[in-house]
Amino acid sequence: MTAEQLIFIIVAAVTLVAGISVVTSRNLIHSALWLILTLFGVAIFYVLLDAGFFAVIQVIIYIGAIAILFIFAAMLTRRVMQDTGPQTNPNWWLGGLIALLLFAGIAFILINWQGFSSLAPELTNPSGRIIQLGLALVSPDQYVLPFELASVLLVAGMIGAIFVAGEKKQ
Amino acid sequence: MIPLSWYLIFAAILFCVGLYGVLVRKNAIAILMGIELMLNSININLIAFWRYRSSDGIAGQAFAIIVFAVAAAEVAVGLALIISIYRRRSSVVADDMNMLKW
User: B41: which of A64, A146, B10, B15 fits an S-S bond (Cβ 3.0–4.6 Å)?
Assistant: First the structure.
């Protein structure tokens, strides 16, 4: 067992425990804090996959923006259903069953796939990756259209969020 | 060296945990957290397939960037909707959000 594998196993265990705590803890603030730990684990996976840029934007966007938004929303809606009543639907076992069945299906398909346990090829030119990605996102014969669509989507999402959540003046 | 299977199995487990949260939780904010877990596992899959199967190209990374942008927009609009509904109904339980039902 190499050091990489050991790091993978530790990070995977911590991330999965944190992820399960996100969906099971009663207090929503605790859920949000566990979510931050899960997102950190995913960022470490990006580092292990030689995608350091993604680890950075994972920390900036997910932990810095999205998790903080969750904490704000949890605090703005704090007074209701704090500790009263069950936090889950009465038929929670059905949801668990569906999740387990889906995992069994995914695992069955993956195990029958011949590239399942392939190893990573040597990464050529690792430092030029970010330049390549940046050029690919703005070059007309590659991904400029999805990139522009994503920016339009972000502007629309921002305007929509302000419009929906803003105070209406009577 | 870590085989590709470890990443895929981990992402599958994380996706199923997120799906369980989406299906089971009553609180609408907790449902959005489950969606975030699912999107993260998808991103791990995209990056892992890029690294192991086609590390010469850049398509997997470009797709993952788009997933990031969509996740940010989705969570902003979703939380705005939940806060707006909370102002009107004083509730964040997904079962209570039946104003469009008739």
Answer: B15
Sequence-distant (≥ 6) Cβ neighbours of residue B13 within 8 angstroms: A16, A103
Q: Do B5 and A110 touch (CB under 8 A)?
A: yes
Structural contact between residues A66 and B75, judged by C-beta atoms closer than 8 angstroms? yes
CA dist A88 and A57 (Å) reads 32
Please calculate the CA angle B60-B66-B72 and round it to the nearest 5 degrees. 135
> Which tokens in the block code for residue A38?
């899960």
Interface predicted TM-score (ipTM) of this complex, two decimals:
0.89
Predicted confidence pLDDT, tens digits, chain A (170 residues): 788 888 889 999 999 999 999 888 888 888 899 999 999 999 999 998 888 888 999 999 889 989 998 998 888 887 655 556 677 777 888 888 998 999 999 889 888 888 777 777 777 777 777 888 888 888 888 888 988 999 999 999 999 988 888 777 65
Domains present along chain B, CATH in parentheses: 4-93 (1.10.287.3510)
* A20, A81, A133: residue with CB nearest B27: A81
Rounded to whole angstroms, how far apart are CA atoms A113 and B56?
22
Subunit contact A98:B23, Cβ cutoff 8 A: yes
Q: Is A98 in Cβ contact with B30 (below 8 Å)?
A: no
Judging contacts by C-beta atoms under 8 Å, the chain B residues touching residue A124 are 55-56
